[in-house]
Design goal:
Elements lengths: L2 H5 L12 E4 L4 E6 L2 E6 L3 H27 L9 H44 L4 H37 L1 H38 L7 H10 L5 H4 L7 E3 L8 E5 L66 H5 L17 E5 H6 L6 H7 L4 H14 L10 E3 L6 E6 L5 E9 L4 E8 L3 E13 L3 E7 L1 E6 L5 E5 L2 E5 L7 E12 L5 E6 L12 E7 L5 E8 L3 E15 L5 E7 L3 E5 L15 H6 L15 H7 L3 H31 L12 E5 L6 E5 L3 H7 L10
Parallel strand pairs: 3-4, 5-21, 6-7
Antiparallel strand pairs: 1-2, 2-3, 8-9, 9-10, 10-11, 11-12, 11-13, 12-15, 13-14, 14-16, 15-16, 16-17, 17-18, 18-19, 19-20, 20-21, 20-22, 23-24
Helix pairs in contact: 3-4, 10-11, 13-14
Length: 709
Amino acid sequence: RTQAEMAHTCRGTINLSTAHIDTEDSCNIVLSNGGRTYHLKANSEVERQRWVTALELAKAKAIRMRNNQSDDSGDEEPASQSDKSELHGPLKTLSSKLEDLSTCNELIAKHGAALQRSLSELENLRLPADSGEKIKAVNERATLFRITSNAMINACRDFLDLAESHSRKWQRLLQHEREQRIRLEETIEQLAKQHNSLERACRGAPGLASGTASISSTAKGSVPSAKGEASDEDEETEYFDAMEDAPAFITVTADPKHHRRSGSNLSGASEGHPEDWNLEDSVFESSNQSSYNESTGKDLLPRKRRRSRIPDKPNYSLNLWSIMKNCIGKELSKIPMPVNFNEPLSMLQRLTEDLEYHELLDKAVKCESSTEQMCFVAAFSVSSYSTTVHRTAKPFNPLLGETFELDRLEELGFRSLCEQVSHHPPAAAHHVYSRRGWTLWQDITISSKFRGKYLSIMPLGAIHLEFHSSGNHYVWRKVTSTVHNIIVGKLWIDQSGEIEIVNHKSKDKCQLKFTPYSYFSRDVPRKVTGVVSDADGKAHYVMSGTWDEKMECSKIIHSSHGSTSTEGKQKTVYQTLSPKVLWRKYPLPENAENMYFFSELALTLNEPEERVAPTDSRLRPDQRLMESGRWDEANVEKQRLEEKQRAVRRRREAEAVEALEEGKDYEGYIPLWFERKVDAVTGELICVYKGGYWEAKDKQDWSVCPDIF
């Protein structure tokens, strides 16, 4: 870009002429300019080198353009110099092309004159009469060609003169549009700040104490208005690779009466009739239930009565900036954080919360069609984010070797086990077995970065789900979670990115897109859309909804290609039957805003239980003290546990050095209940459950468990 373009470009643009290009490792590129930094990631080292080469060439070109701009001088006032230099580039290009055309014209004239001389010489020769007529005709055509080329050159010269004469008008129109855009941005920013101020004043008004809860709940459930206060760009912003846009499509609901004679069934091609849209109604009963405790299976024992509340969260004031200002750019797991930023649950318990809507998988077991089953798996993958909409607090980082079990085999038909298998980087292994016909396992590493204004949480690793009877094996990965307004404004969380769910047996796929929040978007906040397609790429179902409320499924009866969008992409139009609700979020318990916005399942996760392993998260003392409201004691206990873990790590490092000096192999930390294997589907090294935990629980033999608390 030229200097003039850089002066009026969109926010987030980097001037390549002054940018610094660096490489972090074999795949990562760092592009920085002052305080603004981009982190780019290529798929391979070869691709990274191609990008670096292209960026270096672009940088060299930008430097040349900047030097050319600095050499230009004019008689106009400085205020219009940028506009003049902005127009200088296109005019200079036109002039260059005109010179090329003039050169071509001279060559045409030269060769045309030589051709006419040759033809004149041929006319003077004694040739048959009709030969002379043909030569004369060729000579006339050569003359016409030369006249035409001269006319073309004159037209190009007239066009250049016209462009120069209209440059003033272009400058005025361009400046007017820029001023309009700036005024619009300033107005929106001012409205957002006023909204935030009014909200704070409303919460702090003494006469509105009785209405505070409802106002707070409404504000938290809607799109955060305080975002504008923290969305101002500065020179300390970092940018990361954006997700590639999912294929655009439009959904049109069809009239069922027009499709009764079609002959395909629910599991077939994209032509179907309403009678085949037969997802049993019992599948959707759980979406209309009012609480977590009502979705019980008839074939299981009655549920044990569990707690429905915890002590209210204390109202402690804390200067966040005084703690966070020295943490910018560091790995979050390496920052000593007080419990004031935590919630009284560990990361292992948060991972177990993915099972809150396990009944979706119980229903998926009954599906005969793999694409229909994919719809329930997709709804389950989205439902795991529903608990995060208000949960901006940080869970406790598990200690190495810490475990968490959730044994609901007799009540809900499944039992779950999590173990912290690595501390740096933090990684947890999770295994769930359900006697209703499915098994889920995952090995998740959490990568998190604090960027000053926001916190990015990037779960790395695949989630596996296998159905026992059909053998269908689904694999997907989580999207990025972002906590905004870390320093100023009200905290709010957003999910963005794409989830691709693949059935590795049938090759069915579901592509889900989590649309990030934007001030200027007309879409519903927290929107999720997707399409379920078979192995041949034929679309069968459209998924739509929001990750904090519900997901719907619509059967496709016809698809066609629509018009091309402004971005040049052709939209697909899906004609569907009426949507059916697959999943709907349970309402939060009463007084949830004072209980960390825990769901009914989350309230039970840290409830003391007997016969659990001594490494279970329920027995972690700092977490228990925080839940009881004794935060000062919890901070002291948290520091003690972390120092104890550091001492164990130093001892393990010393043992590794000693083994190296003696020429022996040192295996390092070995997980208790999981073992590392290469996954046959993804080819990744993951931790899978090796067995033994539930047998040890039955015998109450915990001799292999370390003393971590």
